Each structure stands twice: as C-alpha cells, then as structure tokens.
Amino acid sequence: MKRLLITGAAGNLGTQMRDRLKHLADTIRLSDIGDMGEAGPNEEIMPCDLGDQVAVEKLVEGCDGIVHFGGKANEGPWDVIRNANIDGIYNLYEACRLHGCNRVVFASSNHATGFYKQSEVIDNTVYPKPDGLYGVSKVFGEMMASLYHQKFGIETASVRIGSCFPEPNNHRMLYTWLSYGDLATMIERIFDVPKLGCTVIYGASDNSQRFWDNSKVSWLGWTPQDSADDYRAKVDANSEKPAADAPDVVYQGGMFTADDIHQE
Ligand code: NAI
Ligand code: 15L
After folding, report:
1. I need a surface site. Which of 30, 90, 230, 235 has the fewest CB within 10 A?
2. Is residue 127 flagged as an active site residue?
3. Domain range 3-257, CATH architecture
4. Which of 72, 75, 108, 109 to mutate to test the pocket of ligand 2 (most atoms within 8 A of CB)?
C-alpha cells in the first residue's frame, strides 16, 4: 500500500501495532484525539475526532487501507459511544466511499456476542448478542461494513477481538486472550489476501480453552502462534477463581454482561 491509516493510534493497540505494521505501506498515517507523540520515519500524524465528518473525510483521503482501532473501547454513556463508534464509523465508511479506500480492518469486539454462554462454542456467523451499548455499537459497525460492501464493494474484516493485552491476567482471559503478535499477523493476512469480501473473525490466540470457532474463515490463512496456556499457572497463582455463577464464568462477555446502562 502507499498509505495505511491507523486510527486510535494513541491507544493500547494503536501504540502496539504502529511499529509492527509499518512494513505494510510506504506511509503510515496515525490518528487519534489523544497524544501520539512525534512522527517517526514514514509516519504522518493527523489528529481527528471520529465524530467530525469533515475532518474524517480529509483523514481518509489518499489512504489505500485502514486499521480502525479508534473509538470508545468499553462501556460508557451513550453520547460518547454514539459520537465515536456510531457517527464515527458512518463518517469513516462515507469517507472510504468518497475517496475509494477499499480495505478496512474494523476492531469489533467479543462484546458484540457477549451474552453467549461460555459453555457454547460459536462461530463467526452467529446472530449477535451484545452485552451493552458498547457491544451494540460494534454490531452497528459490522453492519455498516456489510452495507458498504454490498453497495460499494468496500472490503472489511471485522475482528471480534477477545482480550488483547501483554498477557492474560484472569481466568476468563485464558479463553479470550489475543497476543499482540497474533493480532499483527492477522492484520497482515487481511491485507495480503487478494479477495477479502466482508467477513467477521474472532481474535483469540491458540488457547486450548476456547469458545470461538474460526473454521469458516480458515481461507484467510491466519494461524495464531501464541497461547494463553503458557500463563495458566501464573493466572491460577495470582487471581482468585470466580464462583461458578459469576458473570465472568457464565458469559463470554464476562463482567460486561452485569454492567448497568451508564448515564454519565
Ligand atoms: P484504547 O482505549 O486504548 O484506544 C482507543 C483509542 O481511540 C484511544 O486512544 C482514544 O483516544 C481513541 N478515541 C476515542 N474516542 C475517539 C474519537 N471520538 N475520535 C478519535 N479517537 C478516539 O483501546 P484499545 O485497547 O487500543 O482498543 C482499540 C480498539 O479495539 C477499540 O475500538 C476497541 O473497542 C477494540 N477492542 C479492543 C480490545 C482489547 O482487548 N484491547 C478487545 C475488543 C475490542
Ligand atoms: C473489549 O472490547 C475492550 O476494549 C477491552 O478493554 C477488554 O475489556 C476486552 O473487550 C475483553 O473482553 O477483555
């Protein structure tokens, strides 16, 4: 690619992927409302609020691909979620349509399907069961991806990321953990495949405990290399096992399922 846009570049995943993805394009354009530091070689910094349609249109101009990490990344008040994740994703796809940007990695979330039980194994085609307003906003994003694919041919991988952190630090994460390295190779595959279409994929490493089945997207050729199993003893030693009826053990979305609707 000539230019790859990474939104949410000041956040956890944006910071981690900034270096890991730099070989994918001549120029990496980084955007956020937070501090992204100085531009490195072959980087350009363009601060932008995703809720600002005019600014997002300018942001996407000249980009061949987007890794869309930007947005409200957990439960919160509706006006915040609406601005970043609802208006924000509409603005992003409209800008893609106007400027011919044809491939997007959308950081969706396991909270799009958080009300499935941990005792169920689900694949990437199940009907969503969001576990909060945040989860609903991710389902909305996936539907925008579908609409813009059907009407305009824009290709998207909506990655329902599990828990992407340095290492798993509780028992639920033994199922949901995704390593930074495995996320990076997944994004590489998403930009490598000649035809992507519009697809959903779960983002979890090669954990032996799992409730997500990616077999319908095996054509992507992504093989995670890391496993939460390597941290099991540490998790057992450092965190108490929740009771059998605790949301963190019953539902795939864990504690998000027990969260209230946030008023502010
Ligand atoms: P984060 O909160 O560290 O990063 C999100 C970034 O988006 C922040 O830097 C924030 O300033 C920016 N942002 C928020 N509102 C914005 C707005 N209105 N305009 C422009 N930028 C805005 O979250 P993290 O962990 O890096 O996650 C990245 C993406 O991946 C998020 O969309 C999140 O929903 C998704 N995800 C992450 C998971 C994880 O385990 N890290 C799990 C599931 C989904
Ligand atoms: C998410 O969607 C959040 O962005 C992240 O911070 C974690 O809470 C993750 O889900 C999770 O389910 O562990």
Report:
1. 230
2. no
3. 3-Layer(aba) Sandwich (3.40)
4. 109
